[in-house]
Amino acid sequence: MRILLVFGLVAVALAEITRFEGEKVFRLQPVLDEHVTVIKNLAQSIELDFWNPESEKQVGIDMDVDIRVHAQYLDLVYTTLEQSGMEYEILLEDLQAAVDGQADNKPSPRAHSYTKYNTWAQIQSWIASISTSNKDLISKEVIGNTYEGRPMTLLKLGRKSSFAKPAIFMDCGIHAREWISPAFCQWFVKEALSTFGSDAQMTSLLNQMDVYVLPVFNIDGYEYTHTNNRMWRKTRSRKSGTSCVGADPNRNFDAGWCTLGASSNPCSDTFCGYSPESEIEVKNVANFIRRNKAVIKAYLTVHSYSQLLLFPYSYSYNLAAHHSELLKVAEGASAALRSLYGTRYTSGPGATTIYPAAGGSDDWAYDLGVKYSYTFELRDTGRYGFLLPESQIKPTCEETMLAVKYIAAYVQKNLY
Q1: Model confidence pLDDT, tens digit, residues 172-228
Q2: Active site amino acids
Q3: What is the DSSP string of 202-232?
Q4: CATH number of the domain that 207 lies in?
Q5: Are residues 131 and 239 in the same domain?
């Protein structure tokens, strides 16, 4: 009986939801090399959660550094910052209040909603229903299972054809806590299906091309953010010999793997994994794109936050062979996005526009031969960070649709 009781207590402890009372998100503004050193030393001495950039390795002068600080370390952080003379501001005064405030006040529907952050169960049931809604335009395919056994279902949008059409591949939710990203993939599918036949551009696109949409890439991690820890980022894979769970799927692709801006420490949020494609989710996506690389002409991956439209390279400071064209398209897409609500995006190659980061999916796809390879970093620029309120889902998705449609129209006219 005692043994059963112990196991029961362990199970309860494991299922405990992480709370964030008293935690704060700081924006630091290092302008001296000494400030950079202070931040890196802090990261070595206490546990910090880097929101932007994604680890202390990427910190440099004249960049905003957003960090989440646990309540027990606040006094130390305040003292260190005051002594260093570094300027800073508090973005989120109480992280738990921000987590609680993310949902709007409307009653939460039991079913799927395009203006709410849906659970994986709701998304899975939405995938099942929407894939039968218009069989002339949509079909689904399981490209493999996640580490915890959840099916990775890919939606294929496009008018049925007797021949292989050129295609665009889009994924959302590589990083578990970036909830606005899967919300966009769901919105895109809804818009594509509902405007086919009335919107000339979408009708032309789905007549002539296919769009593959992976609504949630890192399903296990996404589920975990809903059930246990809202701030979880990585996959949920386990390996004997370490108690640290998961790897960063966007450091696990075979593109300059585990060099710049990635960590070989399994406990790090930017852990590159034990080898390229060690994460089954990454392998499943890479295998699908490799199998279909003859038809896939564009790769779009959707992240948050920072309001950026990036393209290769992130693992190197070298410019991509198609740099000028990729920049022109990114700037056009950013202008289209801005036309709706005035939201400003910055465009450019990853390494020089934000920071170097090896093992990313966009670099990998580009090196494979997918020329139009882009990473979106959606709203905002730090006011809410990963906790973008549900009231911003609709405007964020509406403006992002304009950018995606701009890129898609360009690719459609410039097939290679």
Answers
A1: 999 999 999 999 999 999 999 999 999 999 999 999 999 999 999 999 999 999 999
A2: 377
A3: HHHHHHH-EEEEES-SSHHHHHHHHHT-TT-
A4: 3.40.630.10
A5: yes
